[in-house]
């Protein structure tokens, strides 16, 4: 799998490394979104990008790394949205998060990568790990810092699984009336829930738990 | 596709119709759960059940009918659980529903059919229709009657999508700490949400919505 970089033609390819890397990422994103984590192959992605398969391994290490770099990055990624919203203040975080989530998704399916990841994680331990790390790491720390709460990882997962369930029902299943409910109605229903999950205390917690 | 019932061997099979029907349902349930709605074939199910494919069409009309009869039936089906719980009274419905949902699923994956349906509905209009009808019909009517609320269909869908998102994260993704959180903690977190979705009013609804 190692490239012979002394070979002229290969060396020429390596010089355009950054462009190749971007082409690989674009090809991988398309393949993963179309075929899922399991169905997409590194070989097929390399072929789509017009590079040697060895270059993919050189840049991304393995399929997991490629998945993470292509599907989990980008400024529009919803897992970054909570962090962005917290930068703008912690007030009414529930309503703001729900509004931002559905407005952005209504506007054009930019969350498709997360749905791909979500589906893939059901069958792929690697994708599962990527998803967990994305939620449990810096994001949970931000929540803990912003609201002074414990259980921040669980809180983030409650919010994420609720929003993903809603997104799945609204955009994939398209079940009515949920699919046609206005964003402001969703904010009114779900906003207080997200607010409580992120900032509320749990005095009603059972002593037996 | 029509069977010649005058043919002796076929006639012998038809006489054991009820047993054959049960065998078909069992085979279909297994196939649908393993391969999803899209992957399972009527021919393969008939083969597993040891019957002629025409018998499957005779009993169930089409693949959708077979899916509905095999995956959506049974006393343990979670979509029936809310109705059962309402038979026992409407008090603390949120906590009781969340507790019942996770206790039963923790005990042995009896909700796998619903997860299959949920996944299949993303790609199959027929499965989508089955899922919608199961939620929007009698169940929403029960909620409307029990709590005197409007928007009962939307309320049921909010609850269903929340619980399915949680179940997916807990049982399929197995993300921690959600996967190991005790049922009573889940009741404390999610119970009030379900209670509000099913019984609450929405004074905060935006006038622009």
Query: Can you identify the CATH superfamily of the largest domain in chain A?
Result: Tetracycline Repressor, domain 2
In whole angstroms, the N-to-C terminal distance of chain A is: 52 Å
What is the overall silhouette of chain A? globular
Average predicted local confidence, pLDDT of chain A: 79
Instruction: Name the chain pair with the biggest interface and residue counts per chain.
Output: A-B, 47 and 47 residues
CATH architecture of the largest domain in chain A: Orthogonal Bundle
Provide the structure class of chain A. mainly alpha
Backbone CA Rg of chain A: 20 Å
Q: Roughly how much helix do the residues of chain A carry, as a percent range?
A: over 70%
Please tell me the total number of domains of chain A.
2
Query: Could you name the CATH topology of the largest domain in chain A?
Result: Tetracycline Repressor, domain 2
Number of strands of chain A: 0
The unreliable regions of chain A are 1-9
Oligomer: homodimer
Write down the secondary-structure element order of chain A.
HHHHHHHHHHHH
Number of helices of chain A: 12
The profile of the biggest β sheet of chain A is: none
Strand fraction band of chain A?
under 5%
Assigned CATH class of the largest domain in chain A: Mainly Alpha
């Amino acid at each position: 799998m190692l490239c012979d970089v002394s070979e002229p033609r290969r060396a020429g390819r390596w010089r355009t490394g950054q462009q190749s890397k971007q082409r690989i990422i674009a090809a991988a994103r398309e393949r993963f979104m179309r075929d899922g984590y399991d169905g997409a192959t590194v070989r097929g992605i390399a072929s789509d990008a017009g590079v040697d398969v060895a270059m993919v391994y050189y840049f991304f290490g393995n399929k997991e790394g490629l998945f993470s770099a292509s599907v989990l990055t980008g400024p529009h990624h919803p897992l970054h949205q909570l962090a962005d919203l917290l930068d703008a203040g912690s007030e009414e975080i529930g309503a703001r998060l729900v509004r931002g989530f559905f407005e952005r998704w209504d506007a054009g399916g930019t969350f498709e990568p997360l749905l791909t990841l979500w589906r893939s994680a059901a069958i792929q331990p690697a994708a599962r790990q990527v998803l967990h790390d994305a939620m449990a790491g810096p994001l949970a720390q931000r929540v803990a810092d912003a609201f002074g709460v414990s259980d921040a990882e669980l809180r983030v997962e409650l919010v994420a699984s609720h929003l993903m369930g809603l997104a799945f029902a609204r955009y994939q299943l398209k079940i009515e009336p949920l699919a046609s409910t206005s964003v402001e109605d969703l904010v009114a229903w779900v906003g207080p829930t997200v607010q409580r999950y992120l900032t509320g205390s749990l005095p009603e917690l059972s002593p037996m738990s």
